[in-house]
């Protein structure tokens, strides 16, 4: 019985450990890669590193996410699980150049 209780308590830890990780970089007010492919149906830990000296805001209406990333800073944004499809995002402070899309397959 103790083993069953222990296994049930560890399930959330196992679920967190199963998160997939993806990275985006902001440089010269552009996201790289501009197309980020992720598996559908999985929770993704998205790490966004801003290499510009000025802040940028990662924003996506489709992903329902908005986060300011300080200049030369880093932020973690959790997305998903996503249905297969395309989810555009942009940098609100440099919307003309900072654009991208998450593609869930």
TrEMBL record:
Record Gene3D superfamilies: Cupredoxins - blue copper proteins
Swiss-Prot/TrEMBL keywords: Signal
SUPFAM superfamilies: Cupredoxins
Signal peptide annotation: 1-17
InterPro entries: Cupredoxin (IPR008972), EfeO_Cupredoxin (IPR028096)
Ranges of residues in domain EfeO-type cupredoxin-like: 3-104
Protein name: Cupredoxin domain-containing protein
Organism: Thiobacillus sedimenti
């Amino acid at each position: 019985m103790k083993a069953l209780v222990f296994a049930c308590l560890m399930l959330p830890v196992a679920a967190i450990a199963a998160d997939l990780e993806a990275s985006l970089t902001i440089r010269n007010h552009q996201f790289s890669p501009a197309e980020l492919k992720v598996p559908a149906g999985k929770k993704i830990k998205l790490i966004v590193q801003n290499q510009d000296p000025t802040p940028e805001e990662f924003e996506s209406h489709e992903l329902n996410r908005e986060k300011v990333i300080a200049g030369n800073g880093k932020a973690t944004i959790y997305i998903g699980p996503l249905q297969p499809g395309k989810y555009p995002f942009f940098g609100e402070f440099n919307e003309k150049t900072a654009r991208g899309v998450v593609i869930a397959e």
